[in-house]
User: Fold this.
Amino acid sequence: MRHEIHPPGIYSLDPPDWFSLAPVRKERRSQNKCSCGESNPKDNLTELNDGIQANPEKADLYFQRAQIFVQRNVMSSAFSDASKAVQLDSNKVPYLLLLADISFKTYQIRKASDCFERVTKIDPKNPEGYLKLSELYFYIKGYQKSIFYANEALKIDKHLVKAYYLKGFVYKEKGDTALAVSSFNTVVDLQPEDYDAYIQLGNIYSVRRSFLALQYYNNALRLRPSSTEALYNRGLFLQNTNEVDKAMLDYRTILKIDPSYSDAYYNMGYINSVMRKNYKDAIVNYTDAIRTNDQYAEAFYNRGVCYEMLGDKASARKDYTAALGVVPTYKEAKARLQQLAN
Assistant:
């Protein structure tokens, strides 16, 4: 039976976290923020409760309290207060945008769409309603409508970076990477210091195995020299194009910045086990990956393969069993255990 070492993961092509409706992702944690509403209100909940009791018809008090509930992730109360603010003043754009954002985050898609549509009717010269609709339809995979609303926003302001981002992600999801590249390049033209756009362009060209990827990753690193995301993606591209020494340098740089970055250890193990046939060093790398992530089933499996290649069947058996402990449906680990039992 052929010994299969599991390769590293693929590049993420997800939208940046500053998209208002975007789910929070692992990368760029420092940039995550809630953009529900227009401001970041002081958490003066007691004062607002008293104010609402004294002035129950004052819409702005409900609006402010809804923002605080969003910050506290009490979404049912946030929805109730935002709805009350809109009920009291149905033509106030910030109230409608807040209610729409909350509705989307609580899976009330029709309600969110209706509120965003109303914004475009009340203030047709404001691109925000169109951008929000474009974003909403992107997330529910209504790609044609997402492009339509992004273009409507661009009719108002042809320099809207977010509209080009949205178009870029829609085209990427549809598999039209040429148009995706065009959209992300427009972002860079409008905003030459846009880190996220360089990452997206680098990722697209990396999938194509085009060395243009390096240009974009290098630009991203020029903007953020300590970005483990950009270093990892560049390292993975170099690894996939057989520039393994340079890839190892990027992974080592990552580990100086973040010694707990388990994927860097894993990829170093992959290079040593598959590309260099250096199973002893690979075992050290996979062990570090497991030390920093004890649920890393692929690292257990790959280390098991390395042990098996070195003739240590007992250790290999332990690692295959550990991989199955993390992922009970791990077919390759089951197959290797069965092979060892024969």
Observations:
- Residues 22-39 have pLDDT under 50 and may be disordered.
- The CA atoms of residues 80 and 331 lie 48 Å apart.
- Residues 75-88 form the longest helix (14 residues).
- DSSP finds 18 helices and no strands in the chain.
